[in-house]
Amino acid sequence: MPINPSRAQDVWKDVGEHVQFTVLKFNRQDPEHEREVFQEFADRSQAIIRSLRIRDAKPETGSQLKVAIGISNAGWDYLFPNAAKPQELETYTTMTGPKYAMPATDGDLFFHIRASDEAIVYEAQTQFSRVLGEVTTVLDETKGFRYFEGRAIIGFIDGTEAPAIEDAADYALVGDEDPEFENGSYAFAQKWLHNMPVWNKLKTEDQEKAVGREKFSDYELADADKFKNAHNVASKFNIDGVEQKIVRMNVPFSAPASGKTGTYFIGYSRFWSVTKGMLKNMLDQSDYLLTFSEILTGQAFFIPSRDLLAKIADGDFK
User: Fold this and answer.
1) Residues 236/2, Cβ–Cβ less than 8 Å
2) Which of 2, 75, 202, 270 is 20 to 30 A removed from 137 (C-alpha atoms)?
3) Radius of gyration over alpha carbons of the chain, in Å?
4) Is 158 assigned a catalytic role?
C-alpha cells in the first residue's frame, strides 16, 4: 500500500495560533491497568478530536485543530513488551559535540496540540488528562504561540528548509520499508531557552550570517557570506550527496516578565536516522544558535497512524 496522508496523524507544517506540547510518564505501578487505560485513550482521543473539530468549525475555514500523539521507545516497551516495534524507534540519549550538548530527558507519551483558538487547545488537553491523569505524571507542559508572520522568536521566517506541503508525505511518513507501521512518523521534541539579550545585541547583518538568510526577505545568503557554522549550514544532512529533509517547526514560548523566552522544536520524519543525523551535524559544527541557547529537553517519539491507534484501542498490541 502507498503512503496515505489521510491515515496519518497531524504531522504537517502548521504551527497554529495556539500550541500545547505535553510530555507524560506512566506511573509504572500496574502495567496491565495502565495499558488498558492507554487502550481506552487511543479510542477516546480520536472521538475527542472529532468532537472538538465540530465545536471549533468556522464557516470560512472549518476547524484548525491538529493533534499528534506519540509514544517513546521506553513507553512502547512498557505498554507493549511483546509486540512488534517501529524499526527505527530508540531511546534518544544525550548527544555531545566539541562545545555543546543536546541532553536527553525522560518521557513516555507526547502531545502536540495546535488550533486557532486557545479554548480548543485547552479543552483537548483537559479531556486527554481526564482519561490519562490517574496513570501518568506530567514531566513538561509548554504553551507556544504564533509570532509575527509565523516567524521564529529570533525574528526569522520559520520552516523554509522544510519540504513543501505537497511533497511532505514522503519525508514525514513511514512507508513500505516498515509495513506494520506505515503512515506513522518519528517525532523529535526539543525545548530551547534563548539568551535573547545576547541575540538582540547582534547587528542584523551578523544575525543573518548566523542563520544563513536575510532577516526581512528570507532570501538565502551565498555560502561565502554566511558564518561557517550558520544554522542552515550546520543543520544540513546528506546521504549519498542528496540533502535529506524533515517536517520541522520552531514554536516560540515565553514568560516575558521573567525574561524566559525560547523555542520548542518539533521535527517529524519518515526516518529517525535523518533527524538524528541533523542533530549530530549541528553539534559537530557548533551551530551558531547553540552559542546563545540552553537546551532543556529532548526525546524521540513514534506517532502511530490512526489505523494503528485503532488497533491499539482494540487490544491488538500487548
Assistant:
1) no
2) 270
3) 19
4) yes
Q: What contacts 114, CB < 8 A, 6 or more positions away? A: 14, 15, 16, 17, 18, 19, 20, 64, 65, 66, 67, 121, 144
Alpha carbon 54 to its chain centroid, in Å, reads: 25
**CA distances to 13, 34, 63, 126 from 120, in Å:** 19, 27, 10, 10
For 168-182, what is each residue's pLDDT tens digit?
999 999 999 999 999
Residue 16, pLDDT score: 86
Euclidean distance between CA atoms 24 and 107, whole angstroms: 6
C-alpha cell at 115: 488550533
What pTM value is reported for the model? 0.96
Give the type of residue at 14: D
Q: Provide, rounded to the nearest whole percent, the portion of the chain with pLDDT above 70.
A: 100
Catalytic residue chosen out of the listed positions 106, 158, 170, 206 = 158
Q: Give, in order, the Cα–Cα distances in Å from 279 to each of 96, 219, 236, 273, 285.
A: 10, 24, 9, 10, 10
